[in-house]
Amino acid sequence: MPLNRAFVGREYPAPDTYEVGREHLRQFADAIGDQNPLYHDPAAARAAGHPDVIAPPTFLTVLGFRFGMSSPIVDPDLGLNYALVVHGEQRFEHHRPVRAGDVLTSVSRVADIRNAGRNELMTMVTEVTADDERVATLTSTLVSRGTAQQEA
């Protein structure tokens, strides 16, 4: 079943904020095996000009896990069969580092749904802010395998 193209342009604000703590950043950095002192040591982060420890570039993936149940992928009207999905692409555009103490707000938007052969590609763009300041723009593409409407 093809994805519902009427979803393009729909926005999905996260139902809550996400407060970034030092320990969140340390645990994420440890999980990915990155011992950069900017992610672990407040003094090292301050010496580099940051007010506190900062996040590794891919840290914002945690928002997808935290707020996944308020995204379009769980809306049955989209028509997405998650068993047919693979992750196609992920991009992070950082406007400033994420840092301990940030209270993040995010809004995701279905930016595009298009055919790619027998597959469909759904692109989501998520804007992340803290205190009304742009922090990052996340772009992800999911591949829905074999669901594209075929020409007769």
Helix content: 10-25%
For the largest beta-sheet, the strand count, sense and barrel status come to: 6 strands, antiparallel
Overall, the morphology is elongated
Number of separate domains: 1
Tell me the Rg in angstroms. 18 Å
What's the total number of strands? Answer: 6
Mean pLDDT level = 96
Determine the number of helices (DSSP H or I, runs of at least 4 residues).
3
Distance between the termini: 15 Å
Might you state the CATH topology name? Thiol Ester Dehydrase, Chain A
Which strand-content bin applies to the residues? 25-35%
Can you walk through the features of this model?
The chain is of the alpha+beta class. It has one domain (8-144): Hotdog Thioesterase (Thiol Ester Dehydrase, Chain A, Roll). Helices cover 14% and strands 35% of the residues. Strands 1, 2, 3, 4, 5 and 6 form a 6-stranded antiparallel sheet that branches. Strand 5 and strand 6 form a beta hairpin. It is elongated.
